[in-house]
Input
Amino acid sequence: MTVIHMNQRQLANRWCVSEATLERWRSEGIGPQYLKLGGRVMYREQDIDAYESICLRQSTSQPVKEGINS
Output
């Protein structure tokens, strides 16, 4: 199995958010798990997909799951 990694810029582009937003989210414990390799932040695609899955909602009245900030 090949593990695909994305850097901060690639994830920011995928989600249409700024890199600064991802930096703030990391400091606040929001978002997918990430790797810190030699000072570089990398996200595994499988962790991004998992985070997106737990953020799915069907209704605005659906409660947010424990540990997930929206």
Observations:
- The first strand starts at residue 5 and ends at 7.
- The beta strands are 5-7, 35-37, 40-44.
- Helices lie at 8-15, 19-28, 45-54.
- The chain has a mean pLDDT of 89.
